[in-house]
């Protein structure tokens, strides 16, 4: 890695857990992001992963050399449960998170690397040779507090660490339409509104997403949208590269944002 550079910050849509096994425009988009990161910045020392599926009361970080792979989904083909992404942990990165967030965070190794992380990152870094430390999404703090936490973590970028969050700009499982390979009108309107705000770096506008049209349809629960706030905080004022601007099943947006990549 070159001196005086900062690793990018990524928010990726993850959709169905079957993403891990697929070869689609979306998975190829994720793979391309990984290739660009390594080509421009070199291999990250480790990844700090923020997944919508570790949604907790309080903020927690893993500190273990061998985090378990969590299969936190039900009713899928056995092939998915046989899939392995054997990433190591990085206790040093965990210690840096603890030092940066101080009394805002505690160690918790009860969870692991869940499908919100491994189904996505297996396409970004398919060799599983980059350590991963997962940070929980705190459901008890405000959007602004998540954003401020991201700002505190941003210094990790200068130390060779990649901050990587996964969720969805639009995620409404109750309105899934299995016959729709694209997005519904409500999905498209909300998704484009959020993209516009992120492009403008109107971070406060994103945090006030409940003022946007169709927000109740797009974000019926906050868990999948909240990871974006950490990423915006960690990339303050940087312009995004929008990737995988694709919606599927009517009510799932796969849109991703990469900050620090051209």
Short synopsis of the structure:
This protein is an alpha/beta fold. The chain has nine helices and ten strands.
Account of the protein in words:
- It is a single chain.
- With 262 residues, the chain is an alpha/beta fold.
- The protein is built from nine helices and ten strands.
- Strands 5-2-6-1-10-7 form a six-stranded mixed β-sheet, sandwiched between helices. Strands 3-4 form a two-stranded parallel sheet.
- Strand 8 and strand 9 form a beta hairpin.
- It starts with 8 loop residues before the first strand and ends with a strand.
- The mean pLDDT is 95.
**Can you give the helix content as a percent range?**
25-40%
- CA(first)-CA(last) distance: 17 Å
**Low-confidence spans: pLDDT under 50, at least 5 residues?**
none
Number of beta strands: 10
What order do the SSEs take from the amino end to the carboxyl end, as H and E? EHEEHHEHEHEHHHHEEEE
How much β-strand is present in the residues?
15-25%
* Overall spatial form: globular
Number of separate helices: 9
- Category by helix and strand content: alpha/beta
Largest sheet: 6 strands, mixed
């Amino acid at each position: 890695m070159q001196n005086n550079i900062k690793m990018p910050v990524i928010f990726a849509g993850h959709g169905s857990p079957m993403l891990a096994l697929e070869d689609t425009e979306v998975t190829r988009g994720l793979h391309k992001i990984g290739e660009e990161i390594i080509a421009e910045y070199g291999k990250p020392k480790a990844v700090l992963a923020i997944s919508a599926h570790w949604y907790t009361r309080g903020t927690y970080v893993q500190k273990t050399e061998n985090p378990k792979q969590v299969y936190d989904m039900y009713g899928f083909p056995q092939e998915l449960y046989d899939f392995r992404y054997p990433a190591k942990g990085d206790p040093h990165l965990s210690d840096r998170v603890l030092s940066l967030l101080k009394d805002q965070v505690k160690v918790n190794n009860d969870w692991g690397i869940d499908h919100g992380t491994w189904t996505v990152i297996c396409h970004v870094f398919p060799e599983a040779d980059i350590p991963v430390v997962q940070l929980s999404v705190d459901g008890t703090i405000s959007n602004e507090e998540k954003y401020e936490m991201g700002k505190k973590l941003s210094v990790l970028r200068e130390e060779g660490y990649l901050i990587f969050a996964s969720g969805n700009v639009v995620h409404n499982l109750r309105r899934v339409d299995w016959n729709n390979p694209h997005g519904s009108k409500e999905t498209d309107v909300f998704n484009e509104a959020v993209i516009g705000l992120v492009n403008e770096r109107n971070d406060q506008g994103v945090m006030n997403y409940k003022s946007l049209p169709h927000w109740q349809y797009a974000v019926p629960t906050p868990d999948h949208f909240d990871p974006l706030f950490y990423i915006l905080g960690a990339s303050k004022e940087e312009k995004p590269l929008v990737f995988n601007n694709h919606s599927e099943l009517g009510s799932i947006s796969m849109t991703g944002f990469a900050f620090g990549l051209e």
